[in-house]
Amino acid sequence: MKNVTDSFLSLGHWPSAGSFGFNTDILSTNLINLSVVLGVLIFFGKGVLSDLLDNRKQRILNTIRNSEELRGGAIEQLEKARARLRKVELEADQYRVNGYSEIERDKLTLINSTSKTLEQLENRKNETIQFEQQRAINQVRQRVFQQALRGALGTLNSCLNNELHLRTISANIGMLGSMKEITD
Q1: pTM
Q2: Which of 18, 19, 68, 165 has the highest local Cβ count within 10 Å?
């Protein structure tokens, strides 16, 4: 390793050549040595190189064959996946349509139920209002009757004396007795 680095270092110390040209000395250029080495390599390495190239060709062909098989399998799986996707999309559309139909049906049911409930509440409200009106009317009648009765009693007490009072009571008892006989 040291020799290699020394040779590179020594390159920097070469004197500059005066001109560019070709060296025609065959021995100094090692052209014969190179041609002999190349000839030996071609003669002996031809079979090895041919075997290496054949092996490489077989591996490439096997790789291509395997790739084609994998491609065919991938295409088949892709078609299956597409078929499943279409099926799932159809099911999703069907669920969506059914869901919308069910939502509309539930909405109509809810609207009808709410409408009936509101109608019942309106009827109860009206019944309650009528009941309260009747009760208020009855209370007013009762108060008017009580006030009229008080007024009549006051007038009777001030106008009637004992004798007239006893006669009126006897007459009323007689009328009640005759009513009792009629009902029996």
Answers
A1: 0.36
A2: 165
**Domain regions of the chain by residue span:** 32-174
For tokens 């609207």, name the residue: 111
Q: Supply 94's token pair.
A: 């069907």
Q: Which two tokens stand for residue 62?
A: 């096997």
